Each structure stands twice: as structure tokens, then as C-alpha cells.
Amino acid sequence: MAAPTTEHAETIVPALCRRFGGETFVQQTTADGIPTLWLPARILVETIRYLRSEIDRPYALLFDLTAVDERVRKHRDGMPASAYTVVYHLVSLERNADVRLKIALPETDPALPSIVAVCPAANWYEREVWDMFGIRFDGHPNLRRLIMPPTWQGHPLRKDHPARATEMEPFSLPDDVQQQEQEALRFVPEEWGMQRQSEDTDFLFLNLGPNHPSVHGVFRVALQLDGEEIVDAVPDIGYHHRGAEKMGERQSWHSYIPYTDRIDYLGGSMNNLPYVMAVEKLAGIEVPERARVIRVMISEFYRIASHLLFYGTFAQDVGQMSPIFYMFIDRERVFEIIESFTGARMHSSFFRIGGVAMDLPEGWDRLIREFIAYFPRRLAEYDKAVMANKLIQRRTRGIGAYTTTEAIDWSVTGAGLRATGLPWDYRKARPYSGYENFEFDVPTGTNGDCYDRCAVRVEEMRQSLRIIEQCVEHMPSGPYKAEHPLTTPPPKERTMHDIETLIQHFLSVSWGPVIPPGEVCVTIEATKGLNGYYLTSDGGTMSYRTRIRTPSFPHLQMIPLMSRGMMVADLIAILASIDFVMADVDR
Amino acid sequence: MTVGSPAVVIGILLSTVIVAAWLIWVERRMIGIWQDRLGPNRVGPLGLGQVVADMVKIFFKEDWIPPFADKPVFVIAPAIVMVTMLLGFVVVPFAPGVGVIDFNFGLLYFFALSSLAVYSQVLAGYASNNKYSLLGSLRAAAQSISYEVFMGLAAMGVVMLAGSFNLREIVEAQKDGWYVLPQFAGFLAFLVAAVAECHRAPFDLPEAEQEITGGFHTEYSGMKFGMFFVGEYLGITLNSAILVTLFFGGWLGPAFLPPLAWFILKTLVFILFFILLRAALARPRYDQFMSFGWKVMLPLTLANIVVTGAVGLSVP
Question: What is the pLDDT of residue A276?
């Protein structure tokens, strides 16, 4: 990852300076090597427009848009004074490079111009920043709270907002407040940008969710219907919000790992990977080869488990009842293997800062070899039952289709992007954790419709199996944890013999490791798309800011575009094909 | 035994209701086995007591009517499907001498009751005052209108061959060969229509759980829901019985088994087929399903009638 970004830093920073004048920007170095520029708010929209559409090989993908409350941060060497900093992270797929833009804002009435006009995907991101930090985006078409309830007081990710229930007044709900809360939930079509009637029809409004069999969790889509045809569909999220980012600010670097498992709860320990890799980058830990291969192997098992669940629910959502039961049986076998290494099935929290929790058990490869012999046969059966089924094809071909350009405009990554025909996989583009040593293909689709999204994932399971096979055949020997003072917990064998390690062990167990100050963003190709952790350390035992960039969040934002003019039944197929979990959206 | 004797009538009434309820167990067990699961196997031998347990549970559930519902209609709706389906069994020729009534227009009577049954779904959706239910009952109405048309037409070939609407005479007319062979197109069309008439998966669009959360019965619970449930299984049994009567020679079969046993066995095959369909297929979209009915099935049944008529005229 370091190589392409440095090369690129030499081209994009001068290009920006030429376009806007060199003194406009303040450059900052970060641990991840992504060129990071502070710029004044007045040229923000122009800069984004320039990066997204004016230069050749543009930075078209808005990877992330977030903010940091800088008011109590101590280590800010060389950065402009700022109370709140808004961070824009753009990716160029053609250059295979990133750029990060930062804007300093004052403490009172922080506001910025909205970039929705030049970058549609920014819509929800700006609403989230407004919701969480109280930063206003002037010119935003619909700047309302996105995740917190409309009646919420304060902005949770500000440092002065309480993080624990014990810091707040005891909870009470008097009748009049309850009345107000209920009033606030009343559905008013106009607030959602919907007309009650057109010239010749009165529309039917249908609340799909938050509890509905096909919304995969607590997710709500407000539908404006003409008969069964969808005139407009407006997604409403936030029902699964648990404040994972806020929790990151009060858990030690080590004790936050189990929280990451529950972000994309179908991805299990794969969620640990970007987090521990980010912490390792800040701490300067080199992970030994064996640990990296174990991480890859477990991540790929979780990818298979997640895709199997997707496959089954996809078939079920278009009315096919049986496949999900067969797939759960296979999924159970995957969990059995994971359990044999880690002791847990779904959320094994197996990765550690500097390695993995323990070495592989004796005879660890027996179950895997059985699975490698068994699973391709099952996939071939499912191809006949699901993918070759004419009813499934008629229900999903040409439904919810979008082009590569639209996908990038809306920050779609993962299988949803590859289904449009672009073979862009982070494991190939920026190999991490040793993926460069594995042979596998990047499957793509052609039409970008529901069927292709499913077909891509089915093929990905075969590729994951290939990777696992290579892991089994070439598992390196050696330690499973790095020899580094910040490895947490440190290798236990030495603590009883050597006073330095004992002290280190005592400190990192009682306090947690102290990670050097800095900023880093590490991204992986997760089960559902790009999952990135943007960590800010202030040199403490806890993160100063933990930003979790999840793939499902922008994917849901695309639902109106994909479903207008379709039938209700198509919307269900579309929702199924996106493959989201609400914990991954709301965090 | 004579047709219509009180003992036979009571026997048929009891056995159909019990069979329909027992089908719940059959379906859950069969689907369980096909899906590599066990299904309910705890209550009694092989889980056979599950139905009793379910019934006890469903009887003691709170009989809840949503405050926004149209109360009288809400209560009547589930009864309609039970009553019409049970009345449908009146004309079923179980075996010589076993039946409730020997009726000259038996087939037409079956169609009439089959059409009436849809009022159950339509009224339930309307009375629930719920948008999902409304969508469900809209679908039920459209589906019934479309599929009844060619359900009737599909059976006309059989009527032309047998020269009668009397189901007993139709069975007798199949002594020399079941109508499934000369009327194969008619059989296929009737089968599809029968699945649609019962609102069974894959044609369960009026309740499509994944789309409209149960459709017309979203608001129903307790015994009222149970009546929809049993009504659906009565529908499966009735339609299987009519299929057997029209195309598979009813009670006819080699003499080593009594006629009634043949009838039950054949019906059971179709019931299992209905269940297998549910386990195997995905649900078409509502508009695809409609256009399949009007653009494929209707021309097919019309062609079938023309061909049957032409053959009947040319071969006297």
C-alpha cells in the first residue's frame, strides 16, 4: 500500500498546488502514508469537483467523510488550529491511490458548504456528521438527523457528550414526553420528499420495516406506491445504532477488539483485521508470517460463512424456501472449523495486536481438508437449485441494475461494484496481510443487476476456498505473535522468566498498551465491500477517535435509485442482493 | 353404504377435517426431511401429536381483534374459507357408495365454491384495515379471477370426453383409460390453476411473507388464523381429490385394494406433490404470474378444447 501512495503523493499534491496555489494547503504526515492536506473551506467544493471530475484518472470514489472533535487532543504538531475537523477521504481506482482532505472548523457554529451537488454519495455522510458532531452543511438538500432519533439532544460524538449511562440523569419517560416522542415519529410524506397525490392518483404509503421479514434486521424503507409500483423509496436507518465509534474512545486498544466483531456481525473475526492492522501500523509492529496466514485463513472462512448466509436469504427472499437450510448446514461446518481454532463460532475475536490469540491446535488441518473436499460439490448443487432456476432468473435479471460509474458515484464497493464488470478487489489492488502470495481470481459480472451480484458472491466462495487450500498447504512455521513491546498480550512464555516482559505484561493487561500518537486508516476487502478503520491516537491507552467506514452504509443510500419504477417484490430482491447487515450500517 | 347416509356424511366430515389438520404435520415433517432437518418429532410417536398440541395452543390463544378492524367482517372472513372448502367435499366421489351427494352438476358446484372461497381472503384483507393486508387481498382477487377462467376451461376437455358434469359419471367414463393421457394439456393447466387457487407456494402471492409479511392474514392470530391455515389444507385436499377424479380415474384401480383406498392413495400423492412444490420453487413476481396466466395458460386451455372438440367430431 505504501508504494503506490507515495508515488502518487508526488503527483497529486503538486497538481492541487498548481490548481489552487501552494500556500492554500498545509500538508500533514500520517502513519498510513496517504497524502493529507488541510485546506480552507472556501475552496472545498471546487477541490472535490476538481478531484472527482476534472483531472484525468480522477479520485471518483468518496471513501469516507467524517469528523473529529479536536478540542481535547494534545498531539497536534504542525496542524492548523481546529475545534472540529471534517475529513474527506477520496480514492482513485485508476491510480490505485488515496487522498485525504481536512478542514478546520471553529468551536462556535461550525459550518461548511455541502458537496452533495458534486458528489451524491456525500448525502448520508454529511447528515451523519451533522447528527454526530453538529456540523452544519449549507446547501444540503435534507440536513436532518440520520442515526439518532429526531428528538435527541446534543451530538454524541462530541467529546463533551456523555458516553455512559452513569454520566447521565437516570432515564425517565413521563407521559407528556412519551407523547412528544410518539408525535415525532408520525409519518409525514412531505418530510420525506414525497407527494401525497399526482394529477391522476392518490399514492399509497407503505412502511416497510423496521420490522419486516425481508429487511435483514431493523431497517425501514418508506415506500410511495402507485398500486404495487414503487414511485419512491426512502431508506431510514439508525435503529441498530449502538455507538460503536463512541465506545472506541473509552475502551483500551486491546479491549475494543471484540466490539469490532459485532460491526459486520456475519464477518466475525474478519472485522478484527482492519482494526488490529491499523493499531499495528501506528505502533510499528511487524506481524510474523504465520500469524498473517492464520488471519487470512480465518478471514476467508468468515467470507464463506457470510456469503452462504447471503446466498440462502437471497433465495429465500425471492420465495425459495429450501436453499437456506442446506446452506446453514454448510455454514455450521465452517463454524465448526473456526471453533476448532478459536473456541467460538460467530464472533471469535481471535486477532490480537501483533498476531493472533493462540497457535493453531494439533491436527488443525483435518476438518479443513474434509471441508475442501465437500464444499465444491454442494456449491455445484446450489448452482442447479438456485442460479439455474428459471424463476430465480426471471425475478432477478435486469432488476436493480446500475453501471460502474453510478456505483462509484454512490461509493459502492465489494461484490456490488464487481458485478458491474469492474474487477476491483482490495486484496488484489493493495494486498494486505500477505494476500499477494495467494493465487485467486476476482470474479466479475456484466449487468450489475441482482442476479450478477449473487453470481459474483457464489464465485467468490470458490475463490476463498482456493485461498484456504493454499493456506493449508503452505502454512509457515514460526511464532504466532510479534516480538514487540506493544504486542497485546505479550508472548506469555517469557513473562515468568524475564522481568521486562513481566512488567510489560502487567501494564498491558492492567492499563492496555500505550499506542504512539498519530493517524492511520487501514482498509480491507470485507465480506460486503471495503471496511476501513480510521484511528486517531493521542498517545494514550485508548483511541482518541475510532472511525469505522463500513461498506453497507453507502450501499443502502442507493436503494431509491435502484428501486424506482419497480414492484414491491423487486425491492425485496434488491434488498437481498445488496447483502447488508444493519449493525454494519448503523455501527 | 349409500351416498348421503348420515353415517357416511359424518364420517366424511370428520375425516376431512382431521386429514386437513394432520396435513400440517405431514407438511412440516416432509419439508423437514427434504431440507435435511427433522421437523416436529417430539409430541407423541413421530411427532404425530404435534397437531393436537398446536390446536390446544391455538384454542387458548387470546382471540384478538385489532381495534381499527371492521369487526363483523373480520370475524366472518376466516369462516368463509373453512365453510366453502368443507362444502366442496360434498360432491367428491370417494368411492362407489361413499359420498355426500350425487349431483349432476358436481363439477360446476366445485368451481362455484372455489370462487366463493376467495371472498375469504378479499374480505380479510379489507377488514384488517392494514396496507399489507390490502395488497394481499388485491393480489388474491386478481389471482382468482385470472386463474379460475382457465381452471374451468382446463376441465372442459374432460367434460367433453365424458359427456357429463357429474363427477361420478366422469370417473365411470375412465374405465378404459384415465383422462390424463388424452387430456394431458388440460391436466397441466388444471394442476397449475389448482396450486394458484389454493394460494400455495410458489403461487402464494396473496400472503407472500417476504414481500407483504403474510398479506391478507397479517392481522390474524389465534383460532381465526388457524381457520385460514386449516382452510388452506382443506383446499389442498379438495383440489387433489378433484384432480384425481378428473384425470386419474378417481377410485378406479386394480382389485387388490378397495376403491376407497385407491382414491385416498392417489389423493395423497397429489398432496405430497403440492408440498414438494413449496419446498422446491421460488415465487414468481405478481405481474409475471398474471401474464403467465393470461398469455400462456389461457391459450393452452383454449387450444386444448378446440383439439378435443375436433378429435371428438372426427372420431365418432
Answer: 93
CB-based contact B36 A326, cutoff 8 Å = yes
Q: Which residues of B touch A394 (CB under 8 A)?
A: 284-285, 288
Q: What is the pLDDT of residue A455?
A: 92
**pLDDT for position A412:** 92
Predicted pLDDT at A8: 54
State which residues form the domain around B118. 6-314
Smallest CA–CA distance, residue A315 to chain B, in Å, is 7
Report which of A86, A190, A161 is spatially closest to residue A130, judged by C-alpha positions. Answer: A86
Judged against a pLDDT cut of 70, whether residue A511 lies above it is answered with yes
Q: Does ipTM top 0.90? A: no
Burial of A476 (0-12, 13-18, 19+ CB in 10 A): middle
Q: Facing residues of A67 across strands?
A: A86
Q: Which of A321, A389, A399 to mutate to test the interface with B (most CBs of B within 10 A)?
A: A321
* CATH number, domain A244-586, options 1.10.3210.10, 2.40.160.10, 1.10.645.10, 3.40.1350.10: 1.10.645.10
The alpha-carbon gap from A345 to the nearest alpha carbon of chain B, in Å, equals 21
Q: What is the mean pLDDT of chain A?
A: 88
Residue B173 lies in a domain: yes
DSSP letter string, A377-419: HHHHHHIIIIIT-HHHHHHHTTSS---HHHHHHTT--THHHHT
Q: Name the minimum distance, in Å, from the CA of A235 to any CA of chain B.
A: 16
Task: Nearest by CB to B210, from A317, A326, A389: name it.
Answer: A317
- With CB atoms and an 8 Å threshold, state whether A213 touches B36: no
Q: How far apart are CA B275 and CA B215, in angstroms?
A: 20
- Contact between A96 and A430 under an 8 Å Cβ cutoff? The reply is yes
Contact B248, B170 (CB under 8 A): no
Minimum Cα–Cα distance from A323: chain B residue: B35
Q: Which pLDDT score, from 0 to 100, does residue A288 have?
A: 92
Please tell me the total number of residues recorded for chain B in this structure.
316
Which residue among B135, B211, B281 places its CB closest to the CB of A572?
B211
Angstrom distance (rounded) from CA B298 to CA B149 = 8
Closest-CA residue of B relative to A313 is B210
Cell of A114: 455541502
Q: Do B202 and A319 touch (CB under 8 A)?
A: yes
Helix (H, G, I), strand (E, B) or coil at A175: helix
